[in-house]
């Protein structure tokens, strides 16, 4: 595969990302500063490598032509004998007037002005003290000397704006670099948006021209993007048979294998992608995500790979979010660093929904619910159809005030369910608010039952449903006992289950010995919880007339209150 350098101004990074992703979709990885510049080495050294590339795509804009780094890249490539044959300028911002002589002169004047300004700034300084600055001025002088010729050369080429190039499916560039496909129609098919339309066209293509690795790669991606990883794996394997050393195919099949819980195979392909391309940041990041799942739980190695991915591509919002997500959880629990990377993800990509949900989770953990709501509201401005966003917003409203915000929270839970009817957590949360805020026992029951139907191993649903069943509305005590015990069986380490069960046995069922056992188990799991000690103390004092035993727990409560200022009922 030919080496293709993508030269652009950071002001045009969104278009650069779009071009980069479009080329990835047909199995071509462009050389870019964000992933290919060696760590801790001068960026200028990397920019010189443009001369070693077979071709260069230049995103020409006003910012590009006034950027010292961009123009340095261009002047480096200018040193190649066949410079004009190896570049493909893409014109942005209606810059077609590049053939206008007076317009070209404006840029020549601009660089002459910058050159004079910089020379003036160091004119009165000792030359020995400004050696680095002098080198930079030499670079600016070189740009000033060559900008006119550079503009003349690129204006002499066919002028295509970015949108025109997209409409042509990048064919002029693919022709320039000699990218061989069995037929140009395959590239056109790749850029179709509709799954079914793409499938129909691919089948027609195969019948007419046959198949190759790119055909299978496009077909695999098409199935993967409609959440059918099983079928996509079949086609990725066929693509790999024909092109075994393409890192993009290995990375993509690994994603599909991970989705199918074939974790060992997924790991092999991520590692192969990295072996083929050791500076492939996305593969490092994906491997890190795999290693932190419940199958591997190798958090230390996952952290190392996330950090490697960030070093290779520090401007990728998704990598920052994934790293933040790891840091936010055990065993790291580094909430400050997680917050920093979540905010960086939002800065880099202001429309990355998961980053807003992530930062909201962090603020909720910090008890700053208003900040959580602020970020979630910002997210609604561009993504109003994400069920988890509505759920998180409703959760935050309830945390602030379960009574004052109940109506709005209910509205967002219902919106979330409208977008995803099969999310057990939304059903549980909506049932809770219907039960405790609206006393809608029938509605609450329906949603608890649905949550259990969706996931019969969801312990929280059983415990909450048991609380409903013991209420005066139903008084289904035997079923409540069954569900409390089911919740404890499923998650025996949750102290709240034992406490709720103890309350029921003490107050409704009047089985005091059983209640005592449940309170004691809750305290064993969480010995500093004041509410648990209070429940047991009340039971000992009133049901068992054991004042001495009760006083032991009242003393523990007093000590806890003294230490943290809590009231007996918190």
Report on the structure:
It is a single chain. Helix content is 68%, strand content 3%. With 570 residues, the protein is mainly alpha-helical. It has a 3-stranded parallel beta sheet with strand order 1-2-3, with helices on both faces. It is elongated and about 100 Å long. It starts with a strand and ends in a 6-residue tail after the last helix. 40% of the residues are buried.
List keywords for this structure.
single chain, 570 residues, mainly alpha, 32 helices, 3 strands, elongated
Give the topology.
Elements: E1 4-7, H1 13-24, H2 33-36, H3 43-48, E2 55-60, H4 62-65, H5 68-77, H6 83-86, E3 87-91, H7 101-122, H8 131-155, H9 162-167, H10 171-177, H11 185-190, H12 195-209, H13 213-224, H14 229-242, H15 247-259, H16 263-276, H17 281-291, H18 299-312, H19 317-327, H20 335-348, H21 353-365, H22 369-380, H23 387-400, H24 406-419, H25 424-436, H26 441-454, H27 459-469, H28 477-490, H29 495-507, H30 512-525, H31 530-542, H32 547-564
Parallel strand pairs: 1-2, 2-3
- How many β-strand runs? 3
Low-confidence stretches: 34-49
Give the integer mean of the pLDDT values.
Answer: 89
The secondary structure category is mainly alpha
Helicity level:
55-70%
Largest sheet features: 3 strands, parallel
Spatial strand arrangement across the major sheet: 1-2-3
Beta-strand percent range: under 5%
Rg calculated over all Cα atoms: 31 Å
| Overall body shape | elongated
The total of helices stands at 32
The first-to-last residue Cα distance is 65 Å
């Amino acid at each position: 595969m030919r080496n293709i350098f993508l030269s652009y101004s950071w002001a045009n990074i969104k278009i650069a990302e779009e071009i980069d992703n479009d080329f990835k979709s047909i199995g071509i990885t462009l050389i870019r500063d964000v992933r290919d510049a060696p760590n801790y080495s001068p960026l200028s050294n990397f920019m010189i490598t443009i001369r070693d590339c077979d071709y260069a795509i230049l995103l020409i804009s006003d910012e590009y032509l006034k950027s010292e780094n961009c123009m340095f890249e261009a002047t480096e490539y200018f040193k190649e004998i066949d410079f004009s044959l190896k570049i493909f300028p893409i014109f942005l911002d209606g810059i077609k007037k590049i053939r206008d002589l007076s317009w070209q002169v404006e840029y020549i004047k601009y660089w002459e002005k910058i050159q004079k300004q910089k020379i003036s700034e160091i004119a009165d300084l000792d030359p020995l003290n400004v050696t680095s600055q002098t080198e930079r001025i030499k670079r600016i002088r070189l740009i000033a000397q060559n900008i006119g010729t550079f503009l003349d050369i690129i204006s002499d080429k066919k002028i295509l704006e970015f949108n025109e190039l997209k409409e042509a499916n990048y064919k002029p560039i693919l022709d320039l670099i000699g990218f061989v496909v069995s037929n140009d129609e395959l590239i056109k098919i790749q850029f179709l948006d509709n799954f079914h339309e793409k499938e129909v066209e691919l089948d027609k293509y195969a019948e007419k021209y046959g198949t190759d690795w790119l055909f299978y790669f496009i077909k695999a991606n098409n199935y993967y993007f409609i959440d059918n990883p099983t079928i996509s794996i079949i086609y990725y394997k066929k693509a790999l048979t024909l092109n075994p050393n393409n890192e993009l195919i290995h990375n993509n099949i690994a994603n599909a294998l991970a989705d199918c819980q074939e974790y060992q195979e997924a790991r092999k392909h991520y590692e192969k992608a990295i072996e083929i391309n050791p500076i492939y940041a996305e593969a490092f990041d994906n491997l890190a995500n795999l290693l932190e799942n419940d199958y591997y739980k190798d958090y230390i190695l996952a952290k190392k790979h996330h950090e490697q991915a960030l070093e290779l591509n520090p401007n990728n919002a998704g990598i920052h979010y994934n790293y933040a997500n790891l840091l936010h959880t055990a065993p790291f629990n580094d909430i400050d660093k997680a917050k920093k990377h979540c905010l960086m993800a939002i800065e880099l990509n202001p429309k990355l929904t998961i980053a807003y949900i992530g930062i909201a989770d962090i603020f909720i953990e910090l008890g700053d619910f208003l900040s959580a709501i602020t970020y979630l509201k910002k997210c609604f401005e561009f993504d109003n159809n994400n069920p988890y966003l509505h759920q998180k917003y409703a959760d935050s409203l309830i945390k602030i005030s379960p009574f004052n915000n109940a109506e709005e929270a209910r509205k967002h839970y219902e919106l979330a369910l409208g977008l995803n009817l099969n999310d057990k957590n939304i059903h549980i949360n909506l049932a809770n608010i219907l039960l405790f805020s609206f006393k809608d026992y029938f509605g609450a029951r329906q949603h608890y039952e649905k949550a259990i139907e969706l996931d019969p191993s969801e312990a929280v649903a059983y415990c909450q449903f048991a609380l409903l069943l013991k209420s005066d509305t139903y008084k289904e005590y035997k079923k409540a006992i069954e569900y409390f015990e089911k919740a404890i069986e499923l998650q025996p380490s949750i102290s709240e289950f034992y406490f709720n069960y103890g309350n029921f046995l003490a107050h409704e069922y009047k089985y005091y010995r059983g209640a005592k056992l449940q309170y004691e188990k809750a305290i064993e799991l969480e010995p500093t919880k004041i509410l648990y000690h209070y429940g047991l103390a009340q039971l000992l004092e009133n049901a068992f007339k054991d004042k001495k035993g009760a006083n032991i727990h009242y003393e523990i409560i007093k000590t806890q209150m003294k230490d943290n200022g809590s009231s007996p009922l918190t």
